[in-house]
């Protein structure tokens, strides 16, 4: 009797232990199912997609060959012979072609730089690309939940974003933002802002409008550091649609994989390297100081270092780390290994600040000529269009049929402040037929050009 009871207890304990093990097994399985299947499903719903974008193709009457620019400038009483010689030299070495554009206000003698002309330029630059984007995406203005407009130098009241809201009769609850004073990196910065907003606003569309109003920034004095922008900046604008709607993946071009912002405004030297100020005669202009390139390099390195730490494969990180340690403890004259970003990124959109700057950035990232082509050709055809240049570069890559499904595109924007902003995009569908539309439609067959 006792042995039977003991055997029964042992059997119950064994069964109980087995049941616990079975229970734990199924709990483990459910957890694995959640992390492998269920969790990624929910995460996908929070992805932000770049549905499409549009770039302005300025009208032909805005074209400004070098000879026209210099002839008109020579008739301005504000420029002396030394100023003319300096601007002629800058134009010839700028990397621009004879086909870049300036707004109508700057074709007058003297230029019309008052407020109303700048407003006309806003209408010309923003409404055209907005209309094109709405047509491309079959989007109604009332479908827009977030609107971000960026322009560095022109900040009217009502704001540029209010001008757009008024023009398109958007909803009363549209979240509108106006970014000013952010320089050439503002478009990439706006992508970062829109992405963060969409993280907390489900099932939403965000439109970004990016431009620079040149009539407001024209400098009519003699100081050479301020004359540079007259020669380098040209007309352009872009409109970009982002969405986190579940159905957006089916028709979007790209997924926004990563954004990154770094800056060095906390350093006086960096802060003052590019600043808008009055000259000795009270004329307003942007001063570009001699140490700007050095500051830009330092700002770029900090951004690239963070991007590399999250993107590069272990092999590249290891080689970089070893070279840093070797230089620090063994051979201080040794070179630090430059990681190969092309192991994880197929296409690069670089700042169009000038040919030498593009090549120097390319050298720092170990890029080949083909990798820098989009930036160099955008500079050649359209000039430096400030923050919207990155989208002309992406349009160039698409027009050349180079962007394939699965490819990653790194947009790198650098601006005053100084700041450096990165956007990493992943192509999520085949992109074809772009050579017949967009800003490159009438000239893509002529590019690349050697210059």
TrEMBL record:
<keyword id="KW-0812">Transmembrane</keyword>
<dbReference type="InterPro" id="IPR013601">
    <property type="entry name" value="FAE1_typ3_polyketide_synth"/>
</dbReference>
<dbReference type="GO" id="GO:0016020">
    <property type="term" value="C:membrane"/>
</dbReference>
<keyword id="KW-0808">Transferase</keyword>
<feature type="domain" description="FAE">
    <location>
        <begin position="44"/>
        <end position="328"/>
    </location>
</feature>
<dbReference type="InterPro" id="IPR013747">
    <property type="entry name" value="ACP_syn_III_C"/>
</dbReference>
<dbReference type="InterPro" id="IPR012392">
    <property type="entry name" value="3-ktacl-CoA_syn"/>
</dbReference>
<dbReference type="Pfam" id="PF08541">
    <property type="entry name" value="ACP_syn_III_C"/>
</dbReference>
<feature type="transmembrane region" description="Helical">
    <location>
        <begin position="20"/>
        <end position="38"/>
    </location>
</feature>
<dbReference type="GO" id="GO:0006633">
    <property type="term" value="P:fatty acid biosynthetic process"/>
</dbReference>
<keyword id="KW-0472">Membrane</keyword>
<feature type="domain" description="Beta-ketoacyl-[acyl-carrier-protein] synthase III C-terminal">
    <location>
        <begin position="345"/>
        <end position="426"/>
    </location>
</feature>
<comment type="similarity">
    <text>Belongs to the thiolase-like superfamily. Chalcone/stilbene synthases family.</text>
</comment>
<dbReference type="GO" id="GO:0009922">
    <property type="term" value="F:fatty acid elongase activity"/>
</dbReference>
<protein>
    <recommendedName>
        <fullName>3-ketoacyl-CoA synthase</fullName>
        <ecNumber>2.3.1.-</ecNumber>
    </recommendedName>
</protein>
<dbReference type="InterPro" id="IPR016039">
    <property type="entry name" value="Thiolase-like"/>
</dbReference>
<comment type="pathway">
    <text>Lipid metabolism; fatty acid biosynthesis.</text>
</comment>
<keyword id="KW-0012">Acyltransferase</keyword>
<keyword id="KW-1133">Transmembrane helix</keyword>
<dbReference type="Pfam" id="PF08392">
    <property type="entry name" value="FAE1_CUT1_RppA"/>
</dbReference>
């Amino acid at each position: 009797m006792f042995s039977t009871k003991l055997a029964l207890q042992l059997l119950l304990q064994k069964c109980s232990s087995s049941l616990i093990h079975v229970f734990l097994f199924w709990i483990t399985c459910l957890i694995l199912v959640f992390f492998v299947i269920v969790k990624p499903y929910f995460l996908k719903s929070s992805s932000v997609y770049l549905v499409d974008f549009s770039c302005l193709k300025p009208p032909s009457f805005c074209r400004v060959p070098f000879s026209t620019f210099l002839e008109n400038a020579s008739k301005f009483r504000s420029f002396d012979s030394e100023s003319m010689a300096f601007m002629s030299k800058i134009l010839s070495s700028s990397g621009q072609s004879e086909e870049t554009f300036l707004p109508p206000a700057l074709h007058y003698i003297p230029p019309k730089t008052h407020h109303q002309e700048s407003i006309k330029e806003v209408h010309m630059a923003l409404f055209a690309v907005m209309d094109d984007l709405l047509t491309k995406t079959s989007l109604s203005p009332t479908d827009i939940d977030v609107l971000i407009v960026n322009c560095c130098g022109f900040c009217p009241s009502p704001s540029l974003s209010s001008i757009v809201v008024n023009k398109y009769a958007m909803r009363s609850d549209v979240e509108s933002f106006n970014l000013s004073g952010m320089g050439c990196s503002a478009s990439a910065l706006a992508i970062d802002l829109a992405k963060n907003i969409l993280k907390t606003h489900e099932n939403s569309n965000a439109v970004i409008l990016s431009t620079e109003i040149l009539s407001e920034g024209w400098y009519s004095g003699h100081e050479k550091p301020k004359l540079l922008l007259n020669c380098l900046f040209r007309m352009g604008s872009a409109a970009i649609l982002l969405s986190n709607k579940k159905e957006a993946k089916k028709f979007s071009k790209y997924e926004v994989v990563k954004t990154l912002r770094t800056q060095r405004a906390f350093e006086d030297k960096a802060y003052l390297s590019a600043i808008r100020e009055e000259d000795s005669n009270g004329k307003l202009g942007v001063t570009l100081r001699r140490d700007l390139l050095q500051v830009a390099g330092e700002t770029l390195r900090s951004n690239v270092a963070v991007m590399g730490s999250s993107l590069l494969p272990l092999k590249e990180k290891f080689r970089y780390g070893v070279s840093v340690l070797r230089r620090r403890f063994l051979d201080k004259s040794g070179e630090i290994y430059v990681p190969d970003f092309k192991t994880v990124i197929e296409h690069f959109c670089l700042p169009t600040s000038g040919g030498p700057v593009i090549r120097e950035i390319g050298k720092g990232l170990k890029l080949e000529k083909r990798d820098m082509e989009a930036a160099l050709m955008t500079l050649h055809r359209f000039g430096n269009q400030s923050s919207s240049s990155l989208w002309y570069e992406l349009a160039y890559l698409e027009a050349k049929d180079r962007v394939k499904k699965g490819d990653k595109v790194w947009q790198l924007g650098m601006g005053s402040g100084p700041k450096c902003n990165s956007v990493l995009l992943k192509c999520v569908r085949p992109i074809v037929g772009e050579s017949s539309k967009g800003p490159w439609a009438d000239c893509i067959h002529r590019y690349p050009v050697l210059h």
